[in-house]
Write a structure and sequence with these properties.
The protein is an alpha/beta fold. The chain has two domains: about 230 residues, Ribonuclease Z/Hydroxyacylglutathione hydrolase-like (Metallo-beta-lactamase, Chain A); about 170 residues, Rossmann fold (3-Layer(aba) Sandwich). Helix content is about 25%, strand content about 25%. Helix 4 crosses helix 5. It starts with a strand and ends with a strand.
Length: about 400
């Protein structure tokens, strides 16, 4: 077995890993967009011969989860190369494309958790892993009598984080690990759990009549947390139109949507009556009209999921006297606040009845304590990716090997 990090030895996002068997089977793990200044996504084709240009040289591509920095370039993959994506991750990414005008076009094969996929002499098995993207997975690759674990992005502090220990036991010893190290620079940080975040949220929800939430819609754990707190504190839970489509499409009864919970409604802003095609509205808007926001504001006690593009609609709520004692919970990575749109939104919303902006977030990436658990797999080599400080992995794990991009590692 040979492993090569095509991209990602000293960057977060846009990582690409190649694995090759002695018989010439070649696969790619993750093919996402680079993250540039202010965390903006770069969608350029990296022009990898045999993968995106020229004649096919790869047998398959495997995607660990639905975040754009892991899946965002798969439209560029040659049509005759099979791409494997977990089915719910595919739903999330396609829906994002519909709502962001990206026109995503791709064909994929389903990659089901705990079900092995045979690619010639190589066996790839996906395992569920806790992350801030729904149904994320890590991948076990076996060939030539060797075993490699690619962690993808992972953590232990989510609602299913306690499953990680059993997963490591199930995987057992491996020869090599390729692991993310996003949080390696945060030496003293221990991630807050989603359960603890829930307890802090209760205090906030009890203090304010209206709670606006600025979070990633695809962070399903966080959505569940805020829904549970809204229910406990007697508030109506109102999803924006994208979130309602997402929660409904995932067909998971544990995820609140306007059709499986009596206290969940949809906020249909005016742009969906004006700026969208009739076909779009027929498919993504009209089904929520009976559960729309007009039925949910009378007592002025609500929790409302928002986007930075919704300031005009929030102003309308304020002018109609639907905001009288409100806060905004900012529940994302702090770095996004530097983006011009987010910065302007946070500055403006204070003028419209929103008394306080409160940070309430926990990371989607493993802290050092969690990464250290990988020592249980007794890997002979450990390679850091998805980090700007790979050398710091040596402070956490045994047998760390620092590699350059496109350097071939023999396993």
């Amino acid at each position: 077995m040979e492993v090569q990090i095509i991209k990602g030895t000293k960057q977060i996002g846009g990582c690409v890993t190649e694995v090759v068997s002695s018989k010439g089977t070649k696969i790619i793990i993750d093919f996402g967009s680079d993250l540039e200044g202010d965390n903006q996504i770069k969608k350029e084709n990296p022009n990898i011969v045999g993968l995106t240009t020229g004649i096919k040289q790869y047998d398959a591509v495997f995607i660990t989860h639905s975040h754009s920095d892991h899946i965002g370039l798969i439209d560029h993959i040659l049509d005759d190369i099979p791409v494997y994506v977990e089915p719910m991750s595919k739903i999330v990414y396609k829906l994002l494309g519909v709502f962001t005008y990206q026109g995503i076009r791709f064909k994929t094969n389903d990659m089901k958790l705990n079900k092995s996929i045979v690619i010639n002499d190589m066996v790839v098995t996906p395992y569920f892993v806790d992350h801030s993207a729904y149904n994320s997975c890590m991948l076990l690759i076996e060939c030539d009598g060797k075993r490699m674990l690619h962690t993808g992005d992972f953590r232990c502090n989510g609602l299913r984080g306690n499953e990680f220990d059993n997963t490591l036991k199930e995987i057992g010893s491996v020869d090599i690990i390729v692991t993310e190290g996003t949080s390696l620079s945060r030496e003293d940080v221990v991630n807050e759990t989603e359960e603890h975040l829930m307890e802090r949220a209760k205090e906030i929800f009890n203090k304010y009549n209206q709670v606006f939430i600025l979070q990633s819609s695809t962070n399903i754990d966080r959505l569940k947390v805020f829904y549970n707190v809204a229910t406990e504190t007697g508030k109506t839970f109102i999803e924006d139109i994208f979130t309602s489509n997402l929660t409904l499409s995932l067909k998971d009864e544990s995820i609140p949507n306007p059709f499986n919970r009596d206290n969940v409604y949809t906020w249909i802003t005016s742009k969906y009556g004006k700026d969208k095609s009739q076909r779009f509205k027929q498919k993504y808007v009209y089904k929520f009209k009976e559960r729309s926001k007009q039925k949910s504001y009378k007592d002025k006690k609500y929790c409302l999921l928002i986007k930075t593009s919704m300031l005009e609609s929030i102003i309308k709520l304020y002018n109609k006297n639907f905001i009288d004692n409100a806060c905004l919970i900012y529940s994302m990575w702090d770095g996004y606040k530097k983006e011009p749109e987010t910065k302007k939104f946070l500055e403006e919303i204070n003028k419209y009845g929103v008394k306080d902006i409160i940070d309430l977030h926990t990371s989607g990436h493993a802290d050092r304590k969690t990464i250290k658990l990988l020592n249980r797999l007794h890997a002979k080599k450990v390679i850091p990716i998805h980090t700007t400080e790979p050398e710091k992995l040596k402070e956490v794990l045994d047998n760390v090997v620092l590699v350059k991009e496109k350097e071939v590692i023999q396993v």
